[in-house]
Specification:
With 732 residues, this protein is mainly α. α12 runs antiparallel to α14, α12 packs parallel to α17 and α24 packs antiparallel against α25.
Length: 732
């Protein structure tokens, strides 16, 4: 260590620049009338009541506790540093050449304070008593300390994330940048850690010009997860609402603080006799004790064969108007209780007569749930609420901060801009990148999302407009509970497909939706609009800046689209090899293409260079065909020759370089094919058309003729798909 080079004024415990400052007033943070205002001299700054803080901001982040810095001089340095970041326009802060010019968010300041506390603790442990002793060697040592993960023996077993490394570097950079502001202690004036490089450069942060590090949710996880969530909100949702109401009503009567309850000193034989008679007269089972309470009774000496072991005597006492059941009363009440148990039995309180539903796999009809204890009922309501969160997040793309800002009444009135087309909208706030308090905004969503929000409102304990719909929640925890329930016997009983392991969080769900939207024509701009990125998209669109976020997203989407098309072509090639042939006008051309590359890899008989000896060679040949594949709603379009495209002929644009998929008539276009995956679409179309035909009156001949032709075409396509699959299966 080296001696101090910097000198500071005599320290009297007060700041030379922020003494007696009102922290919120200096930082421009509004507080309600009469709320306590944190002062600079306070060792704990409480921002809990600040107006406009996002719901997502945890309560612990709203309190800045400086007492964790034990050294009084360094504690003052911490206060001065944090307030300078909150109030960059303060007369003492603005002249600093390397100070921040915009106020940092409370969350960012809390993170800076946490790292400063950690740094001060580390300095004390290593014998550093003054910031004036800090040099580049100490900065490097702290950076190494925060960079690596050590085991119990001090051996390196891993490396911290770039974000952790950046925070470690930032604390030293901040102490240099705000050096002139500090009253009690300062780093040396000539200290330039890491040659003056930025914290991001020191931490080797990714530049952000590569692929988005947040990966989409894997399809194998997304499909069963979303299917289970949709089943829960559509089928179990109405029953869960009623179950939640029953829980609230039962809680009002079962609590020991319910009005009208009284304490008695003698056994209430008359009250219990009357209550048990009502149970017997109505053939209603007595309430059952939860399993953990039964375990407590067994541990306290109850016999496993006792007929009253599972009877909830405390609940019965409150139903009889008594605060609680006294153990000394059992001698007097055992007889009536045992008679009632023998007569009507004991059963869980909730969902005793559950309504019947059709299971998710449509294999059977059964009660929507088995009878439940209170905690089980509360958990089931929570699972349904989580299902509504999953549908809302997956199909709307809202950020966590935007979901937490949703409130009761956020469903805006339905609109019908075009007859037959309903628009569903939700109101929330955009928090990210916005001023404190967020910015009111709206999301146009699909009907399942709208219904999911409606269900969440119905499940809410407080139906008053303006109450937080979800509040602050930990999605990863709730999703774990949801997945465990789906994969449990309860989910299996309802015919739900198990959800495999895989990472699922709100960022991944948002990324998945962004990619799905961007696959569609004009989808890049649409996804930017829907995900509230329109300002960035517009700026880059006007500037045409190469390498911008819009260009990166488009390039990434194109890569995903190419990979998907190649997978589809390879799948159809494998189907061809197994005798499952394509159908439609373009089937012959596609079959000939597959036949041209389907030569057996026989090295001994390799007389021509075209024989393919590996899957890689096959993929190389399929790649060219994959580049011309376009997906229609009920067909594949192989856009190999624009002059033959029926859609371009109908539109009068024969020189276009892309097909007009929305105008595709795949039953007549020579470049369209139908495959087994398209059969359900055509079969459903035929079924619906047949229903319409049956509903037409005898006078509507023109409409009947048109629908009949459409119906015949759909049947023909279905028959062709079946024939293309069946013929080769029989010959095989």
């Amino acid at each position: 260590m080296r001696t101090a080079r910097a000198t500071v004024a005599a320290f009297d415990g007060r700041s030379a620049v922020f003494a007696d400052a009102d922290v919120c007033r200096e930082a421009g943070l509004a507080l309600p009338e009469g709320a306590d205002r944190p002062l600079f001299e306070d060792d704990v700054w409480d921002f809990t009541n600040v107006v406009g803080l996002p719901v997502q901001l945890a309560l612990c982040t709203r309190r800045f506790d400086f007492t964790e810095i034990t050294d009084g001089r360094w504690r003052l340095v911490g206060k001065e540093l944090v307030l300078a970041m909150l109030a960059p326009r303060h007369p003492a802060v603005a002249p600093l050449p390397r100070a921040h010019r915009t106020a940092l968010h409370l969350r960012s300041c809390a993170g800076r304070l946490d790292e400063l506390i950690r740094f001060c603790r580390w300095l004390s442990e290593h014998g550093v008593s003054s910031l004036a002793q800090v040099d580049t060697r100490i900065c490097d040592a702290y950076m190494a300390h925060r960079r690596y993960v050590l085991d119990e023996h001090g051996a390196v077993v891993g490396e911290q994330s770039p974000g952790t490394r950046r925070r470690a570097a930032q604390v030293a950079v901040d102490l240099v940048n705000y050096r002139e502001l500090f009253t009690a202690d300062r780093v040396p004036a000539d200290l330039r850690p890491w040659g003056g490089a930025t914290a991001s450069a020191i931490a080797e942060m990714p530049c952000g010009r590569t692929e988005n590090k947040t990966q989409p949710v894997d399809d194998a996880v997304m499909q069963p997860m979303l299917a289970a969530a949709l089943f829960l909100i559509s089928t179990l949702g109405p029953h869960a609402v009623e179950l939640a109401r029953q829980i609230r009503e039962a809680d009002k009567l079962s609590t020991r603080k319910a009005p009208g309850l009284r304490s008695v000193h003698v056994a209430p034989v008359a009250e219990f006799t009357k209550l048990l008679s009502e149970y017997s007269d109505t053939c209603t089972p007595l309430p059952m004790l939860a399993d953990h309470h039964v375990a407590d009774r067994l541990a306290s000496g109850w016999s496993p064969d006792d007929p009253l072991l599972t009877a909830a005597t405390g609940v019965l006492a409150r139903q009889a108007g008594i605060t609680q059941f006294e153990a000394r009363w059992m001698h007097h009440l055992r007889g009536p209780l045992e008679d009632a148990v023998a007569s009507v039995g004991v059963k869980e309180v909730f969902a005793r007569d559950a309504a019947e539903i059709t299971t998710a796999d449509t294999s059977t009809v059964l009660p929507w749930t088995l009878p439940l204890h209170r905690l089980q009922a509360v958990a089931l309501v929570g699972i349904v609420r989580t299902a509504s969160m999953i549908v809302l997040a997956a199909a709307s793309g809202m950020r966590a901060s935007e979901l937490m800002e949703l409130r009761i009444g956020c469903r805006l009135p339905l609109e019908e801009p075009v007859p037959g087309l309903t628009r569903y909208r939700l109101a929330s706030k955009v928090v990210k990148g916005q001023p404190l308090g967020g910015t009111d905004d709206e999301w146009v969503v699909i009907e399942p999302v709208y219904r999911a929000v409606e269900l969440a409102e119905d499940l809410h304990d407080d139906h008053q407009d303006g109450a937080l719909l979800f509040g602050r929640f930990a999605f990863s925890v709730r999703y774990k509970w949801f997945r465990n329930w789906v994969n449990s016997p309860a989910g299996h009983r309802l015919g739900l497909a198990p959800v495999p392991d895989g990472q699922v969080n709100l960022r991944r769900l948002r990324r998945t939706l962004a990619l799905e939207m961007a696959y569609r024509p004009g989808g890049v701009l649409a996804s930017k609009l829907h995900l509230k990125h329109i300002a960035v998209a517009t700026t880059e669109g006007y500037a045409s800046r190469p390498g911008g976020a819009q260009a990166e997203l488009l390039a990434e989407v194109n890569k995903h689209e190419s990979d998907r098309n190649l997978d589809l072509v390879l799948t159809e090639f494998r189907n061809y090899q197994q005798g499952i042939l394509p159908a439609g006008p373009g089937a012959r051309s596609l079959t000939e293409f597959f036949a041209s590359i389907d030569e057996k890899p026989d090295p001994a008989a390799a007389t021509a260079p075209k024989i393919q000896r590996s899957d890689r060679d096959v993929l190389n040949l399929l790649t060219k065909r994959a580049k011309v594949l376009h997906l229609g709603p009920a067909n594949y379009c192989w856009f190999t020759d624009p002059s033959r495209a029926l859609c371009l002929k109908l539109a009068g644009t024969p020189t276009a370089d892309r097909p007009l998929v929305g105008m595709c008539d795949s039953a007549r276009c020579p470049q369209a094919t139908h495959h087994p995956c398209h059969r359900p679409v055509w079969a459903d179309h035929a079924e619906r058309t047949e229903i319409f035909l049956g509903q037409l009156g005898t006078t509507r001949k023109t409409e009947r003729t048109r629908l009949q032709a459409d119906y015949d075409r759909a049947l023909r396509v279905v028959a062709e798909i079946d024939a293309a699959t069946t013929i080769d299966e029989e010959s095989a």
